Amino acid sequence: MVNADTKLFAILGCPVKHSFSPQLYNEWFRKESLNCIYFAIELNIKSFKKVFNCMRFLGFSGFNITLPYKAEVIKYLDIVDNVVKKIGSVNTVCVKNNKFYGYNTDWMGFINDLSDKNINLKNKNILVVGAGGAARSILYALKKLKTDKIYITNRTIKNAEKLSKVFNVGSISLQKARDLLPSIDMLINCSSCGMDLQDVLPFDVGKFKCKLIVYDLIYNKLTPFIKFAKANKLKVFTGEGMLIRQGACNFEIWTGIYPDVEKFKKFRSFD
Ligand code: NDP
């Protein structure tokens, strides 16, 4: 029951009306019998600072940050760890003794999802598409997983080149991605390509390994990457596993409990 002791949590972003997070965390709070509640708060760029300060005054215990504020939020936090400094974005804030601690758990969600799916990327060749915040988290994770070669490609090549220097990986134009594909074991879409129904694959696909795995971080759309994988009977994963597991890591940061991820394993299916 919600009462004066109820701890407050939320997601801040724009848009968040579609967000699955309230359903996810409120279910976990209920399951663990914790007196906590989670809201979705949609805010525009002009009100971000004000809303952020309100979180402090209203006594929120923690919150998630999503697009487009994941980098912006860093300057308002009291403490961030080295992972945040490397990745450059925060998706989770925990309030302890009135201090705001910022974390990035997207990379952990990806690693935990691969582990639960028994996918070992050690010595594998990876092609990352996209060079935004999500790509940074994935590159960080891939480095931890001791993959062999990592290449990054992006619509705006200079953004890929920038990331290739930060993470010491190869960058390649979309045109050349086609030639590289036959040597790739996993293609990871970290771009927003597919969020719009009109989007098409950003590069021509020629030859590829019959064991190529396609992993698309987008979790709620039938993207061109998913369509390509399904049409060619390739193993394909959407971002739902990563999303749920980063949520589980956030829940553990806030409550000390790693929740049950089984129930939410497949909240949206394209099969
Ligand atoms: P950003 O806005 O930071 O970056 C977007 C990237 O996508 C840029 O590299 C951009 O290229 C590229 N891009 C955008 N539109 C297109 C297009 N039509 N065709 C090709 N490339 C395009 O977003 P994020 O990195 O934060 O997020 C990317 C996606 O990942 C989102 O759709 C988000 O939903 C998903 N995501 C999923 C998570 C999960 O847990 N499953 C976690 C985080 C993100 P350019 O540089 O040229 O602008």
Secondary structure elements and their pairing?
Blueprint: E1 7-13, H1 21-31, E2 36-42, H2 48-58, E3 62-65, E4 79-80, H3 82-87, E5 92-96, E6 99-103, H4 106-116, E7 126-129, H5 133-144, E8 150-153, H6 157-167, E9 170-171, H7 174-180, E10 186-189, E11 213-216, H8 224-231, E12 235-238, H9 240-255
Shape: globular
Quickly give the structural class: alpha/beta
Oligomer: single chain
Termini separation? 38 Å
Write the element-wise H/E pattern from the N-terminal end onward.
EHEHEEHEEHEHEHEHEEHEH
Bound molecules: NADPH dihydro-nicotinamide-adenine-dinucleotide phosphate
List how many beta strands DSSP finds: 12
Give a description of the structure.
It is a single chain. The protein is α/β, with parallel strands linked by helices and 271 residues long. Helices cover 34% and strands 19% of the residues. It contains nine helices and twelve strands. The strands form two sheets. The protein has a six-stranded mixed β-sheet. Strands 9-8-7-10-11-12 form a six-stranded parallel β-sheet, sandwiched between helices. α4 (106-116) crosses α5 (133-144) and α4 (106-116) packs across α9. The two termini are 38 Å apart.
